[in-house]
Amino acid sequence: MKKVLSFCLILCAKLALAQTPHVCSLSKQNAFQKNSLTKNNLSAAQASLIEKYDVGFHHLSLAVERTSTAIKGNVRTIARSKVAALDTFLFQLHANFTVDSILGSNQNLYAFTKLGDVTAVILPQSIGLNQTIDLTIYYRGTPPSGASAAIGNGFSNRASPTYGNQITWSLSQPYSAYEWWPCKQSLQDKIDSIFVSVTTDTANKVGSHGLLKQIEPKPNGKHTYHWQSFYPINYYLVMVTVGQYAEYRQYAKPKGYADSILIQNYIYSNPAAYTNNATSILATKPQLELFSDIFGLYPFHQEKYGHVMAPFSGGMEHQTMSSIGIFNYGIVAHEVAHQWFGDNVTCATWADIWLNEGFASYSEYLARFYLLPNTASQELSDMHAAAKQEVGSVYVTDTANVNRIFSSSLTYNKGAAAIRVLHYLLGDSMFYKVCKTYQTRFANSNASTQDFNDLVNELSGKNYDFYFEQWIYGVGFPTYTTTWNQTNGKFYLKVKQTNTQNGGLFSLPIAFTLKRATGDTFLILDINTSEHNFEFPIGGTISSVVIDPNVWILKNSTLTKDASLSIGEQAETLGLLAYPNPGEGMLWFEPSLQSTVWLEVIDLRGRICMTLSGKEGFDLRQLQAGIYVLRLRDQEGRQQMIKYQKY
Ligand SMILES: [Zn+2]
């Protein structure tokens, strides 16, 4: 889902006041405890009862017009019992609606009690483990208008202020599906397949999931759109949209895929709606082909992708047909990418929403990077600027707060910026391998932050837990204060690191470009503590230094030349000479030491390889051959840096 910026900015200002930073481990714990259905209008007992069955199939058969939100119809549900004896079947439907009757497959009437937003069907005999129940709920009413969904109401009706088309549309994320159809609002239980049949005025078209199987003529100027989808789908991705549309088709041809994929666009029938948005609409095909290349084939390739317009401020990744209020290049890319990150693999809990929104937002940048490269750096800079508004962790610690779940700065932009850091750490090849494997391993299912963390560790063969602690569960981002100098043929660099919030320090290899008339040179230095001092022999005159030249890292940084920075000159404060140098590892000093000194052996990436103390005969024989900087410090705090070569 994507909201337009003006709304996001208001949201950010509110959040900045409302939130306080958390300690990483605490925030993770709290989130797991809090990740209940607190906003889902179910008590703990009801939440437990509703998990006693697994939804296999829904068929929504509804009467909906473009002029009103009133709904009349029925929903058939086929579910499987997950327990030995299921005697109550619970579902959610807003108190506004009347349930007329509930029928079994043999037309038997079920008794039920509807209390507020929850209905309990009393089963005449209990259903055994893995046995199915097949019932059809007949209901009618008008959905609520309390603007409870992330954007507006669960079910809305309005005319487009720009194009005049009157539209009735649904937007259920995260907890508002029950505001228009009887359902089970559980992220963990994907509906295995879904049919949507909507009867409406013949002037209308109906957008929904999968393939349009039939437009069935009905009496009294009506017809019924029959959509069918055989891919598993989450409750909040179920959608109907009704209005007067013109249809525009494209076909995508992903690399290595023999067939083509239909892109079916329902655009307001006012012709200006197409002409004004054609550039963005036509961008769908190359974007879908690009994402098929880098994330794996479009997950719903046996059905379709498409857009259906509705007058709201943003876009929503309804499975196989995104709802679009505003067409622009970024929103289209965002919702296309969601078909992989959000729809095929859905976040396991709302605390993990960054796995949907961070990837969709980062994909906006990737689309520009590969397809519109001249616009990529602006996109990146906007993403970083928005991410810097953040207060708190990317991981959601309060899933009852819809504004926090969909925080523009944290979930979308810092989520995207954090994914870019992971992209940098893994490199292109491993990053895209992770993306593709995530799509296949968790296809048609859900994944948590821990699942993703485990996958990164497994595929890379390295432990990236630190990345998740620092960037996903942790707060803030790094500020680097860097000074440099060049004197006597040596280059000196001092890097200080702080966290913008009350969080820990970050461990990252940071790239520096040293600009010289004779040709630039590059360094990659591990920055993982509050202060690092580096010294390198270097020829040519360095005119300037650039930190992180490809802008991989979300950071604040200052970089200044400091003519007084000359660590080597501190040699005079101890005045020692090391010998033999180069040598095989045994090291003495001249004149001989009068008191204990501390010795740190630092490699050229700034890592401390060894720490020793003593008065004579330092043993460095375990070091690998190479060039090192020895940092000596005596009891008075005087220091000396010596370049040392180990054979
Ligand atoms: Zn989104």
Can you offer a commentary on this structure?
The protein starts with a strand and ends with a strand. It is built from 13 helices and 36 strands. Residues about 5-40 and about 570 have low confidence and may be disordered. It has 4 domains: about 1-35 and about 270-300 and about 325-475, Neutral Protease, domain 2, CATH 1.10.390; about 40-245, tricorn interacting facor f3 domain (Immunoglobulin-like); about 480-565, Immunoglobulin-like (Sandwich); about 570-645, Immunoglobulin-like. A hairpin with a 3-residue loop joins strand 13 and strand 14 (about 220-230). The radius of gyration is 30 Å and the shape is elongated. With about 650 residues, the chain is α+β, with helices and mostly antiparallel strands. The protein has a 7-stranded mixed β-sheet with strand order 5-8-3-2-11-14-13, with no helix packed on it. A 6-stranded mixed β-sheet has the order 1-19-20-18-17-16. Zinc ion binds near residues 1, 2, 338 and 357. The site of zinc ion has 6 residues, from helix 6 and helix 7.
The tally of structural domains comes to 4
Question: Level of helix content?
Answer: 10-25%
Q: Which parts are unreliable, with pLDDT below 50 for 5 consecutive residues or more? A: 5-38, 568-572
> Which structural class do the helices and strands define?
alpha+beta
Distance between the termini: 58 Å
Major sheet, described briefly? 7 strands, mixed
CATH overall fold name of the largest domain: Neutral Protease, domain 2
Q: What is the overall silhouette?
A: elongated
The strand count comes to 36
Supply the CATH class of the largest domain.
Mainly Alpha
- Overall pLDDT level: 90
Ligand types: zinc ion
Number of helices: 13
The proportion of strand residues reads 35-45%
- Oligomeric state: single chain
CATH superfamily of the largest domain, by name, is Neutral Protease Domain 2
The CATH architecture designation of the largest domain is Orthogonal Bundle
Using the CA coordinates, give the radius of gyration.
30 Å
Strand order of the largest sheet: 5-8-3-2-11-14-13
